[in-house]
Give the backbone structure.
Amino acid sequence: MFDDYAHAIVSVAAFALMVLVLAGLSGYRKGVAKLPAGGSPKEDYADPLYRTHRAYLNASEALAVFAAVVAAAVLAGASSFLVNLIATIVLLVRVATAVVHIRGVGAENGGPRSILFGVAWFGMIALAGLAILAGLSGPGGE
């Protein structure tokens, strides 16, 4: 039923898998640092533990929006080519965002991480726009 949207659906599942991996990595690093369960490290971007924790939280926050706009676009019957393309790009950019975040590349605010975040953000806006346009056009694009 959703074969035409396979890349978009896989992108949502892969994004969720990335969040789970980041959760494990963050949890492991917090355990090594002997933080209490549910604890947060001190805010310090120079600390790899804090950056890993923030990468996990940032990806977790974005996952719900990504899943929502992909689902809306698929269910509204938006162009499968565009939905697949944009969803795949957003996934790849979000993976790069997590890597850049954890490695501490660039400034705390601005730089590569912010640029990647912006690209993914605009991609999700585009997916929402596709869903809205498809939904407003009615069944069969009328």
Observations:
- The two ends are 21 Å apart (CA to CA).
- The CA atoms of residues 78 and 130 lie 6 Å apart.
- The first helix runs from residue 6 to 32.
- The chain has four helices and no strands.
